[in-house]
Amino acid sequence: MEHIGTTLQKLNLPTANGLDSTLEPSQTATAQTFGRTALLTTKLTTNEGISIAELTGATPLSDSDSATKGELLARLTAAYKLDYFNESSVHCMGAKDIFRRAVSKSWTAKEFLQRLDEMTETCAFPTWTPADFFRTERPKLYPYSWVLEECAKERSAMQRMEAYIIPPIAKAWYRYADGEMLEARYPEWFCVYRCGVSAYQAAKPQLRLAETTEKKEVSEVAKVWARVATAENDLEKLKDQITVLHKRIAQKDQIIAAKEEIIISLESQQQQHEYSYDASDTNDSADNGDNKL
Question: Residue 22 and residue 167: Cα distance in Å, rounded?
């Protein structure tokens, strides 16, 4: 299969210096691109997964982020009508605690403040704890090894997943589809698979392929993805049919076993009857002999 950079070029997606070996990074990425690439490459070898916020290239929170700290205290003060700016108060210490935890978890400012709004909307009183703030898991994407583990637990799991290619990493990241198309939020992301169907071209409906001989090649790649998805669906159907057949065979085996038990029972009864009949004849003969004497 050709390199993903070549494929993206055929879809009129930008690549760096026209080379298919290096994809142009997201506009949100900065000089940290190479560090982020190393992080993504490392996590591709494990099933740990990586948060969507990290994949966007956004800078994670730091202890020196005074702007986000100020916004945190202001929003909590407005929501609960308490002075969270008073550093000696227990409320301010609680706010600083969740900020410290978010920094250690590499949260970004955007997702941190978004989660803060969600918490203040669900917690009516200022008695919240860090568990209330971190009660939901950050949305993540996972490598293919995670897909294999999930399919080992449930063989049809792949049919509920979607896959994305996120430059500059030319490998797919997976997650369970939740109805949101991430390529709409992050235009530089490229969806290649969604719920059993290749999303190879549907991910970029606004793009129009040039009328060249390369168009046919891209179409062929899309057809391969579609055939793979169809083959997977057919395989699942065959497995289901085999399961049904096994159940029917087991039921027939039970019926045969029951009939065999009935036959054995009848044969046993017949043998007992014949034995009783022979014994009765023997007794009658003995009685006749006694009478003659």
Answer: 9
Show the domain range for 95: 66-133
What tens digit of pLDDT does each residue of 35-51 get? 455 555 555 556 677 88
Query: For strand 190-194 and strand 161-166, is the pairing parallel, antiparallel, or unpaired?
Result: antiparallel
Structure tokens at 221: 């790649």
pLDDT tens profile 68-114: 999 999 999 999 999 999 999 999 999 999 999 999 988 989 889 98
Tell me if 28 is assigned to some domain.
Answer: no
pLDDT in tens, 155-191: 888 889 999 888 777 778 899 988 888 888 778 888 8
Is this structure's pTM higher than 0.85?
Answer: no
Residue 88 to residues 76, 93, 128, 240, 263, Cα–Cα distance (Å): 16, 7, 18, 64, 89
- Select from 214, 221, 169 the least CA-distant residue to 9: 214
Q: CA–CA separation, 121 vs 175, rounded Å?
A: 27
The answer as to whether 171 is a domain residue is no
Euclidean distance between CA atoms 44 and 64, whole angstroms: 30
Beta bridge partners of 176: 161
CA-to-CA distance for 231 and 228, rounded, in angstroms? Answer: 5
Domain assignment present for 33: no
- The count of domains in the chain is 1
Nearest to 96 by CA among 60, 135, 69: 69
